[in-house]
Structure formats: structure tokens, C-alpha cells
Design goal:
Order of helices and strands: HHHHHHH
CATH class of the largest domain: Mainly Alpha
Mean pLDDT: 92
CATH topology of the largest domain: Serine Threonine Protein Phosphatase 5, Tetratricopeptide repeat
Oligomer: single chain
Radius of gyration: 19 Å
Largest sheet: none
Strand content: under 5%
Structural class: mainly alpha
Number of domains: 2
Length: about 160
Amino acid sequence: MDEPLEIKSITESGVEEALHKADHYRLLNEPEQAESICLDVLAVRPDEAKATVTLILALTDQFGRDGGRAIPAAKKRVDELKDEFARCYYTGLVCERQARAQLHRGLARNFAYEGFREAMGWYEKAEGLRGPGNDDPVLRWNSCLRTIRRERLQPRDDGPEHALE
């Protein structure tokens, strides 16, 4: 009978090259490979912020094609970020990419609207925490608004309230 297989550890000296490879695999639209590499880096350097951010991005790259598995994993990793700006910004990014996945899967458009609006709220928080010259939250906020307008997304119309009898 075969022995159980175990994950192998990368070396500390290989971390920087591994991070470069993770970025490369994201560009090649292979987010599962980037995710795996980031997990290997985090096993060696648990507080490596670049690995955590790249992992978040790789997980969000999988939204819409993984049956929702990556959403809680991405949110968990965002919570691990030490920097408040980064937590706000990447929470917004997770919300935005989840909304885009909903929109592309043809789910109820009002859920996508709500996701974009939630993302925009997080981007506004991040905007108040940003450093000089960092317009990333503004760029993302504008992108969300343009998508809402282009797709003519609307909030949910819950209709009239009915009294319980």
C-alpha cells in the first residue's frame, strides 16, 4: 500500500522567485497554480504580505468558475492582512469581483448591483486611509460605477411590505 503523500516545503531562499512565478501564473490565467505557489510561500513565511495579496487575487480570479469555493477563502485571507488600508481595499476587491462573477453568470442583476455598491463602500473607506499618490481605491470605485451604469444595474425592488395577519 502506498504511503500518504505530503506537501513538500520550498526553501526560504526560493521565496522571491516563487512570488514572481505566482504573478506570472496569474497573468497566464492559471490562478490555481498561483494559489498553490502562494500557499507554499506562506508555509515558509506566514506573514509575507505579498504572498497573501497575490493569494487573494488568485482566489478572486477563480470566482465564477469554481462554484463559490474561493469566496470564503479570499475573505479569510483579507482578514489576515495587517494593514487597515489593505484590508479595506481588498475587501472591496473581493466584493467587486464577486459581483462581476454574478453578473457574468447571469444571476440576478440586483445582487451584482448590491455587490458593486458594497465594494464601493469599502473603496471609500480605503480612500480615506490611502497614502499620497495612491489612487487605486478611486480607480476601482469609478470602475464599479461605470459597470453599474453600463449594465443599467438597479437595487432590489422588494415591493410593498405586507402586514402579517
